[in-house]
Specification:
Its cofactor is Mg(2+). Keywords: Lyase, Magnesium, Metal-binding. One of its GO terms (biological process) is oxaloacetate metabolic process. With about 280 residues, this protein is of the alpha/beta class. It has two domains: about 240 residues, Phosphoenolpyruvate-binding domains (TIM Barrel, Alpha-Beta Barrel); about 40 residues, no CATH class. Helices cover about 40% and strands about 15% of the residues. The protein contains 13 helices and eight strands. An eight-stranded parallel beta barrel has the order 1-2-3-4-5-6-7-8, surrounded by four helices. Helix 4 links the parallel strand 3 and strand 4. The longest helix is centred in the middle third of the chain and has 17 residues. The protein is globular, with a radius of gyration of 19 Å.
Length: about 280
């Protein structure tokens, strides 16, 4: 039986595409991102929500635009009063289009959303949840146990705002301390336990500094994350180069474990090689 992580094994990058205008979505076919997330939430003002929904449906029903990529539509959360309208639009999309659901705090939100989808005549959907609050972290196991859930994202800016803690270190290249690093690790561990993919983000204060962005992405990788959201297209290749171990590193790990004379490979080297290959199973 193929696991969820194996199913999404090639998913490293998810490019967020705003839909408030026609400026960005025509560039989707030329993107090297593994997945596209059409945003109906934060990037779309209230007066433009209807137009954005129309664009989302048109894009998702155009195979030439999708170009073989995983497709997500990020809807508005249930507190917004806009979710039902968003789900009506999602119901008009092909079954393989998935929902990205923000600010989740309880598994019951998934039940309600699934019921709403069915009311609109749409099929059940795979769901990628965004954990952006301490309440969401506290309910991780129940949320990720739901069979509809295939992925989880740590929404770190909203989380820091809710907690009232510092977000980035003085260099602007990683989280400041344990208040942020602990939930990052907790979410990655829960994702591994429930066999779903896990994403972080690539945006930091010095988002044009490629070395700092790369270091930030490697921190996500080293905590067990399998992918990252890119809010700007130039971060996609940085994600591909840093969110996973490189091909030579994976090949070296395989060579170490395939070595006929294991006595010549130090114990810790074998364990590190096993760790790299476990992180990349199915990839």
């Amino acid at each position: 039986m193929t696991s969820i992580r194996e199913t999404f094994g090639t998913l490293r990058s998810i490019l967020e595409v705003p839909l408030k205008t026609d400026r960005f979505w025509p560039k989707i076919p030329g993107s090297t991102a593994d997945a596209i997330m059409l945003d109906l939430e934060d990037s779309v003002p209230a007066a433009q929500k209807d137009a954005a929904r129309t664009r989302a449906v048109r894009i998702c029903n155009d195979p030439a635009l999708i170009a073989g990529k995983h497709m997500f539509i990020r809807v508005n959360g249930h507190q917004s009063g806009l979710l039902d309208q968003d789900l009506a639009a999602v119901a008009a999309c092909p079954p393989e289009v998935m929902i990205c659901y923000p600010k989740i705090e309880h598994e019951d939100e998934i039940s309600r959303m699934t019921a709403q989808l069915l009311q609109h005549g749409g099929p059940a959907r795979r769901i990628y949840v965004m954990v952006e609050s301490p309440r969401g972290v506290s309910q991780l196991d129940a949320i990720l146990s739901r069979p509809e859930v295939v992925g989880v994202h740590f929404g770190y800016t909203d989380y820091a705002s809710e907690v009232g803690c510092a977000l980035f270190d003085d260099e602007g290249s990683d989280f400041r301390g344990i208040a942020m690093k602990m939930p990052r690790a907790r979410i990655a561990a829960a994702a591994a336990e429930h066999d779903v993919f896990a994403t972080g983000g690539s945006l930091i204060p010095a988002f044009r500094d490629t070395e700092r962005v790369a270091a930030f992405l490697r921190a996500w990788r080293d905590d067990g994350y399998t992918g990252s959201i890119a809010m700007i297209p130039s971060h996609v290749p940085l994600i591909h180069d840093n969110i996973r171990h490189t091909a030579p590193e994976i090949a070296e790990a395989r060579d170490r474990l395939d070595n006929a004379d294991q006595a010549e490979v130090p114990f810790i080297a074998r364990k590190l090689a096993e760790l790299i290959l476990r992180q990349h199973r199915g990839y």
